[in-house]
Amino acid sequence: MSVQFNEGLAAHLASRLTTVCHAWAITRKDGVVFAFTDHDRPLAFAGFEFRADTGLSALALAQSTGLSVDNSEALGALSDVSLREDEIEQGRFDGAEVRAWLVNWADTTQHWLNFRGSLGELTRAGGGFRAELRGLTEGLNRPLGRVYQKPCSVVLGDGACRFNLSQESYAQTLAVEAIEGARRFVWQTFEPFDVDWFTRGRLEVLDGPAAGLWGMIKSDRNEGAARVVELWEPMRGLVTEGTQIRLVAGCDKRVETCRLKFNNFDNYQGFPDLPGEDWVVSVPSSKGTNSGGSLR
């Protein structure tokens, strides 16, 4: 959150006649930027070109100086030139960065960043949408710390795992041969990977309307002479025959998989020797000698 108030804007707001409006910039995780203003003419400042009368209009903004979560809502219209329904449905706006300014449209050097956060839940109805805006303190509203459990607690290939997924034996790029129900992919010709090699992995779309989207792989199996890869959920974008995709090997978080499949045991983030429930409920035996050894 910006704490510096533009002195020129402060003087303007103190005058009897003001010419102010709101401006919004949305930056998606894929780098695409959308900028809007509720003024009737386009504006340019802070490195953005703000479109007029498209995109967003703000409701009440609740902010605080403590650690409570700042929140707001914004309303908008769906259109091909601003925020499209299919892109919202595909999740391309999930977690996008949002910045909002109060600006003097007669002199855009007078502007104040009065909100910064991210997009939360988006709902669509009647050709429009309602967006939940979450402030920077939202990050304080989630639990942090390690989980003590037998399975590994990190994501394959991330900074804690450190495994290099670009190796040829752990991923392959190929074209879609057949697709059923946006979730079942079938190939008659397939690289000689072991069955279940890609189970719990990722299917990433590299081109076409769904480029940049990915899905979690539920199963990877042989059906006769065909190789079938099935997702947990249908792809939210259009994937057709010939679309280039990338299959990434899966990990079931077990220590045996980390050691034998990925040869990455040094970075295993689970606790395989953690005692189980049987050990916790074990009690000394009333028979025999209780020497301090195993209770079994």
UniProtKB/TrEMBL annotation:
Record domain Bacteriophage phiJL001 Gp84 C-terminal: where: 196-278
Pfam families the record matches: Phage_BR0599, Phage_phiJL001_Gp84_N
Superkingdom: Bacteria
Database matches in NCBIfam families: phg_TIGR02218
Record's protein name: Putative phage protein (TIGR02218 family)
Native source species: Sulfitobacter undariae
Record lineage: Bacteria, Pseudomonadati, Pseudomonadota, Alphaproteobacteria, Rhodobacterales
